[in-house]
Amino acid sequence: MDGCLIEVTDLKEAVRMAKRYAGYRHGETVFSDLDKRLAAYWTDMHEKLRAIAND
Predict the structure, then answer these.
(1) What's the CA gap between 50 and 52, in Å, rounded?
(2) What is the extent of the structural domain holding 43?
(3) How many domains does the chain have?
(4) Under 8 Å between Cβ of 49 and 7
């Protein structure tokens, strides 16, 4: 995140985790902007991990 390198040791689990995290939302609307940014990040991460897994 934010340009940091991420080491994945279990690709299948990483795909599952990214999919799960993309759906997380706070209950309070005050976090809606943060939730949108995080959802976009985790959705992008999920797509990239799936692409790697399908190679």
Answers:
(1) 5
(2) 11-53
(3) 1
(4) no
